[in-house]
Amino acid sequence: MAGRDIxxxxxxxxxxxxxxxxxxxxxxPPEWWPATExxxxxxxxxxxxxxxxxxxxxxxxxxxxxEMDLDNIGVAPxxxxxxxxxxxxxxxxxxxxxxxxxxxxxxxxxxxxxGRHSLSTKIQIPENAEPGxxxxxxxxxxxxxxxxxxxxxxxxxxxxxxxSWTSFDVVAKGNLKKVLIEDK
Length: 184
What we know:
alpha+beta; Immunoglobulin-like
């Protein structure tokens, strides 16, 4: 393999927005593995959540506004229309009964080119939301199976493929002002 500059080859592939590496029937030489591993971390798309922000307290029927900064640190957008979804779950368990609501955003992941994407969505908290702590979960679902299918380049993934980084409290109707004053 003398005379081949693997770093140059891989950098050229990244500049062309490579999404797949197929080395065919030849093994990758051991001395190329450090460069290959570095290259594979940049191939295709790779999403990192940099910021998630929303209200800390809400009453039932209030609107939860979620702002999220997501970076695609790869070199290409996804080529499948994954569905960005939030789930609001009652703290304390991961089961069907703990899911208060599921909200599909209108975010078009096919437009998530490399770089920063500042996103926002609004979620109406149902009238029947009981007071207490709620966790905010996020996943990119396969458009056909509707299962969480994309692993983000961040911590916080559960066994079902959902990510949770934050929470908020629902307070009894009519008590929000009191809670906000007491928190100061």
